[in-house]
Specification:
435 residues, alpha/beta, Rossmann fold, six-stranded parallel beta sheet, 14% strand
């Protein structure tokens, strides 16, 4: 069996969607490849997911390399103070003001994880000297993982695939600290596209944007969507609950905030006393002060339960037990490419999806195809009408379920076949180990 190195800074025990993506990719390829994951040692993260780590270690080997980064200071302070390790927020790695965090981040290119690159390259060389790798996949963000991959590919002489879950140029959630930072990211993207044997992107919109910047690489850029693992939805059966439950599973960040949805809930509650009595809102993900403030401003503290971060297996149960799942994407041109790593799992859960997003965006198109409800994020009245309509369907036990034909496109078993074909395509024609 050929050997594959998967470079992924984000990996358990660190929790979150990017770690989940890396685990599921590694697991899905493990039947075709002998997979070794290269990741960070003792991740400086407040959100931990031990069950996902156990799942990963059953399928793949894991090599860890130390990192030198600003988060280490915060990690040390938490340990000195005896912090519980529970999540403290979704915005940054400390309780510093966001402006202070940006000042710290401005000293690092492409991001503050760059101190992981050197140790990661050395760890890859050591693992390769023991049992040689045939190919490599690097996934991100963080973008420092691609810097490590470029150096590893050159040092080991192995072909590789760049797996871009978020754009490098035009990334909505990454604030450019200076014109130099923007030029740096543009050059990094060019180096990745020219070096990698193939490039996997998450959405059709990302493909079109990347091809427009690198038309010479069009034949090597392929859409490999985020997906779901069917085995995650065959475990515990969700229990019964009271009321009409609408859940948002994931993090609020930047302008992805619940205010438009909360305004629609208030509108619907004022129109229907029955809806007001029965609706229950659950925000399942890292707590942050901005969304909490918006809940208070909407006067919905008694209606909205802010659950906080939960391990992935519990997040799946939250999806399955809800009556409606909410996705929120602001009306911003930079977010038309955004789908979100949770959407495939939303669909796989069999739960009705309400998507407040621009109709032209990739996420809205998928939700519409699957039979969900799409409302413009600025249309509070329209969203309130949709909520009341869904509530009426719920009372009749007639909520729509996602179309299985659309859902099947995001099955990780199908995605693994596509990745395996891409890997086979970048290997030397005669096969065998790389030097």
């Amino acid at each position: 069996m050929k050997r594959l190195l998967l470079v992924a800074y984000e990996f358990p025990p660190k929790g979150g969607t990017q770690s989940q993506h890396a685990v599921k990719m590694a697991k899905s390829l493990a039947s075709r490849w002998d997979v070794t994951v290269l990741t960070v040692k003792d991740p400086p993260a407040p959100m931990l997911d031990a069950p996902m780590l156990a799942e990963a270690e059953r399928s793949v080997s894991v090599v860890r390399a130390w990192s030198l980064e600003p988060t280490r200071l915060i990690q040390a302070l938490r340990r000195v103070k005896g912090a519980s390790g529970q999540p403290t927020g979704s915005r940054g790695y400390s309780r510093l003001h966001p402006a202070a965090i940006r000042i710290v981040q401005s000293a690092f290119f492409p991001d503050e994880k760059i101190g992981w690159v050197g140790p990661a390259v050395r760890a890859a060389r050591a693992a390769h000297s023991t049992n040689r790798f045939d190919a490599m996949i690097a996934t991100g963000p963080p973008y420092s993982g691609y810097v490590a991959a470029l150096r590893i590919a050159k040092s080991l002489g192995i072909p590789w695939i760049a797996d871009l879950r978020d754009p490098i140029v035009g990334q909505y959630f990454l604030s450019l600290r200076s014109p130099f930072h923007g030029r740096y990211l543009s050059r990094l993207e060019s180096r990745i596209v020219s070096s990698a044997g193939a490039v996997a992107v998450a959405t059709n919109g990302m493909l079109e944007a990347l091809v427009a910047r690198h038309p010479e690489a069009q034949s090597r850029i392929v859409v490999v969507p985020n997906g779901f693992d069917p085995s995650d939805f065959q475990r515990e059966t969700p229990g019964a609950h009271e009321g009409f439950v609408i859940s948002y599973v994931g993090a609020f960040q930047a302008d992805v905030m619940p205010a438009p949805f909360l305004a629609a809930v208030r509108h619907a509650m004022s129109s229907s006393p029955e809806f007001a009595r029965e609706v229950r809102i659950r925000f399942v993900g890292p707590r942050d002060p901005e969304s909490a403030a918006q809940v208070d401003e909407a006067g919905l503290r008694d209606t909205v339960e802010q659950v906080g971060f939960v391990p992935h297996d519990k997040a799946v149960l939250e999806m399955q037990s809800a009556d409606v799942l909410l996705q929120v994407i602001p009306d911003d041109p930079a977010l038309l490419l955004a789908v979100g790593s949770k959407l495939p799992e939303y669909l796989a859960s069999g739960t009705t999806v309400l998507c407040m997003a621009p109709a032209a965006g990739d996420a809205a198109v998928i939700v519409s195809e699957a039979g969900g409800i799409v409302v413009d994020p600025a249309d509070v009245s329209g969203a309130a009408t949709a909520l009341l309509r869904l509530h009426e369907m719920w009372k009749r036990d007639g909520l729509p379920v996602p179309d299985t034909r659309v859902v099947s496109r995001f099955n990780r078993a199908t995605i693994a076949v596509r990745l395996d074909e891409m890997l086979s395509g970048v290997l030397p024609v005669k096969g065998g180990g790389a030097s």
